[in-house]
Amino acid sequence: QVQLVDSGGGLVQAGGSLRLSCAASGSIFSIHLMGWYRQAPGKQRELVARITSDGSTDYADSVKGRFTISRDNAKNTVYLQMNSLKPEDTAVYYCNALLAALGPYKNYWGQGTQVTVSS
Fold it and tell me: Cα–Cα distances in Å, from 23 out to 61, 79, 111?
């Protein structure tokens, strides 16, 4: 049974910072891609950032220069350092991983962590 547990959300003022963490556990053979998505009320879930097993990264234009994704392969953990937060960053943030457990690669999701940025 694979589980992704994400944490680190909270309430912060505009201009502040938060660091999200997501740890994958279970009978994991290999993790190719880890990333973060977010969903604001009334909007579709969107990609924020993702990172491959060799460290290649991809960011949404809206967060480039403010957010940094990193990964600890030994701990099966991905992080999202969020700086210069804006009210429009308010959303539920979901961890995502494309990994192989006891079978082919599949997508897994965390339970989500709320990020609220006040103006």
Answer: 25, 9, 12
